[in-house]
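@channel sequence for tomorrow's demo:
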Amino acid sequence: MKFIVLGAAAGGGLPQWNCGCPNCNDARAGRIAPLTQSSLAVSPDGAQWAILNASPDIRQQLGATPALHPDGLRSIGLRSVLLTNGDIDHVAGLLSLRERTAFDLFATRGILDILAQNRIFEAVSPEVVPRRPVALGAGFDLLPGLHAELVAVPGKVPLYLEGETVDTGQIGEQTVGVRLSAGGRSAWYIPGCAEVTDAVLDMLAPADLVFFDGTVWHDDEMIRSGTGHKTGRRMGHVPIAGADGSLSRMAGLAGRRVYVHINNTNPILQPDSPEHAAVLAAGWQIAADGQEFAI
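structure tokens (generated this afternoon):
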């Protein structure tokens, strides 16, 4: 399997348009690399591709990725798109794929129902882009030669569907991880996860490669930085640091581990920070736009 990180940032990207935090200012000044919003491309053969999550930055991401450039007048290697939740930073890019190029759109029934409730997504014509509901735990072919399975992980409904009470540990169709397998190798893509439970650890243990939620370093990072009033967990994202953070909880995993969906406030984005060093020392990699992996 071949993977290309189309976007490594969380919602808003780096720099975020309205943010003057140190990371965003450094990205504007060229001191650290800018990042677009979360998306991953995967292929079993380098010719046919699936995209996991349609970022609002998808037009820019496709333009920056030669493997996904058109190979004919209106011909491109993109064959399918898969959604892991209904968050704006994962579905809004569908509207940039409305020019009647055929591909399959895979998601749980719960996520597809969210799209169906908003008629703007009819611009991505179901006649050309069929919507393929996927049951949790039911394997399917995302591409010929590339098997996939969706598994529920702790999370919540999208922000725009929140009510007065928010369950951030919901287990169901609203937040899923994707297991990908081909040629006897396996990988996971989980850009959103509110808790690293024992069940999550058990399912990740055999994987050769894991792309995992690296949104915030500290749970109260946005509060500390003055950029927001919610904790990471309240947003549906487990922090990296802490006794129950992902760095500690996932220390026993043997496969390659890569943090994705990184918020603009996260100190791991600074190459000379102790947090960046701690992540690398623990055997993790920090995703960057355009980064390629193969297993």
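heads up for whoever presents: The first strand starts at residue 2 and ends at 7.
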